[in-house]
Amino acid sequence: MLTIKEIVGYYTAKFSVTDFHLEPSGLYEPMEHIMSIPGKRIRPLLLLLACDAFSGDVQASLSAAHAMELFHNFTLVHDDIMDDATLRRGIPTVHEKFGLNASVLSGDALFAYAYKYLCEAPVHYQPHIFQVFTKAAIEILEGQQMDMDFESRLDVTVDEYLKMIGYKTSVLLACALQTGSILGGASIADQMNLYNFGLKLGLSFQIKDDWLDTFGDNAKVGKKIGGDIIQNKKTYLLITLLLEAGDTDKAALLKLFTEKNEDKKVEGVKALYAQYNISEKTLDRAEALYNEALTSLADISIPDADKANLRTMAKIIHDRDF
């Protein structure tokens, strides 16, 4: 069994420099830009850790792992357009730097390149891998549409929100883990346990991300704190507040939705969050989902020592503050 450091080393050695120095530059420079923004590379690492846990060939799985990172960056490019975000990790977003048309097209190209790299996986695994990946890709797009639909609704339930972030965020983590287990030769039962591990970990991850957008450190998060509040995004925090606020406070919240002064808006909503202990409730839900993820990991039928890297990675994701 490899160490996490060794696996990261294999991946970064092969993909520290992308192969996007191509023509036309108007297509490939935006792709190079988004891929060069420092990131956590969580999805490819989870795939490789899952593969290694089942004694699979990590070297032969590197391209499939990179496919997960390429697809993830496709979603970031398009998500930034829809959110009108100007920064990602403190660096100008693709559409901010290169314009809307180039951003749309380069995002589409990242999607296509994800399939290109999946084609480099061992041939006998490809039908199953493509089935799992395509299902996740469709669900991610459905989740993005749900997220946009929620912008015009005040009656979004927690269950609807969890389904949305399950599709938009969690399924790619789950897909990466299941793909890695396929490449490692895991049974269907173990594949599904790893999938559920990723799904619950992703839910916890996104709820923590919602929390960080409002209560995180701007220097660490790399984007403007309170962006979700400014956009009236239906996060776990806002949905919980809408469900629990009294009539007077709910009316005050709805008035804040139309507040033009961004600082005043953020502070006003955060004051209501404090009044209803929304920060604590959000972190509690993230913790509960994290523990559910660990339960699914425990159910996998391999020696406990072989799950150690996946447990470590889950804790890193759970404890992050950026």
Identify the notable features of this structure and list them briefly.
single chain, two-stranded antiparallel ribbon
Explain the overall architecture.
The chain has helices at 4-15, 25-36, 42-53, 62-83, 94-98, 100-118, 126-150, 158-183, 188-215, 218-221, 227-230, 236-244, 247-256, 262-275, 278-298, 308-319; strands at 87-88, 91-92. The chain is an all-alpha fold and 322 residues long. A two-stranded antiparallel sheet has the order 1-2. Strand 1 (87-88) and strand 2 (91-92) form a beta hairpin. Helix 2 crosses helix 6, helix 3 (42-53) runs antiparallel to helix 16 and helix 4 runs antiparallel to helix 8 (158-183). The radius of gyration is 20 Å and the shape is globular. The model has no long low-confidence stretch (mean pLDDT 94).
What layout of secondary structure does this protein have?
Elements: H1 4-15, H2 25-36, H3 42-53, H4 62-83, E1 87-88, E2 91-92, H5 94-98, H6 100-118, H7 126-150, H8 158-183, H9 188-215, H10 218-221, H11 227-230, H12 236-244, H13 247-256, H14 262-275, H15 278-298, H16 308-319
Antiparallel strand pairs: 1-2
Order of helices and strands: HHHHEEHHHHHHHHHHHH
Strand order of the largest sheet: 1-2
Return residue spans where pLDDT drops below 50 for at least 5 consecutive residues: none
SS content category: mainly alpha
